[in-house]
Description:
Layout: E1 5-11, H1 15-26, E2 31-33, E3 43-47, E4 56-62, E5 72-77, H2 81-88, E6 94-101, E7 107-112, E8 118-123
Parallel strand pairs: 1-4, 5-8
Antiparallel strand pairs: 1-5, 2-3, 3-4, 6-7, 7-8
Amino acid sequence: xxxxxxxxxxxxxxxxxxxxxxxxxxxxxxxxxxxxxxxxxxxxxxxxxxxxxxxxxxxxxxxxxxxxxxxxxxxxxxxxxxxxxxxxxxxxxxxxxxxxxxxxxxxxxxxxxxxxxxxxxxxxx
Length: 125
């Protein structure tokens, strides 16, 4: 494992407004990422350029998570998300979003830890 943390997300209530803010402030282009919607929620993603250390991130609009205090989400690298998910509840956490395919960027899942913090899992498989 090269980086323990490999992905971040900044949640939005107005996706287009947030995308314009980050584009304007940091003078960079965000790339819209099509994601499959399911019965759980409608999602929008716009990715930031990948950094030299391989860490990347995105602006996100997702029904399950709202912006605000604590709105930035840290993702932990995983070889296969279901391995970690199988241990979440026994460790005192809760699975908020099961494994979800996000296309060329792999898979994600959302977990509430034992303290109520929201964390993410990311894998390519």
